[in-house]
Design a protein that fits this description.
two-stranded antiparallel ribbon, flat, 4 strands, single chain, two-stranded antiparallel sheet, mainly alpha
């Protein structure tokens, strides 16, 4: 568990709600609408990004996850897992945070230009 891309882990090992919602958004038909209604009350699970996490195979209820405050991408089941993973995660964290900051700055400029055109 805890690959470089925890979002991929969420889909690969995801709960039925996450999987149906993921594919429902990507398949251009209504074939999954009924199934989604059946599973939408299922507890959503997420993958802990700490490779050494032993908490239920690295799975945690999504609403209880804690995200890295630097990149806001890596999710953890506890502060302990986040601290234990920091030596590995910090290598990617700063570069991911820089990419996100650049994206948000460009988005804000476009938003400002769009709202201030006459």
């Amino acid at each position: 568990m805890g690959s470089e891309n925890c979002k991929v882990d969420d889909i690969y090992l995801g709960d039925i709600h996450t999987l149906v919602k993921f594919y429902r958004r990507r398949i251009p038909c209504s074939c999954l609408d009924e199934r989604y209604e059946e599973v939408k009350s299922t507890t959503k699970m997420a993958a802990c990004c700490n490779r050494e996490c032993n908490f239920h195979n690295g799975q945690v209820e999504r609403k209880k996850t804690m995200y890295c405050s630097g990149c806001r991408i890596a999710a953890y089941c506890s502060v302990g897992c986040q601290k234990a993973d920091w030596s590995r995660h910090k290598l990617d964290c700063h570069s991911k945070a820089a990419i996100i900051a650049e994206f948000e700055a460009k988005r804000n400029i476009l938003h400002y230009k769009h709202n201030n055109t006459y």
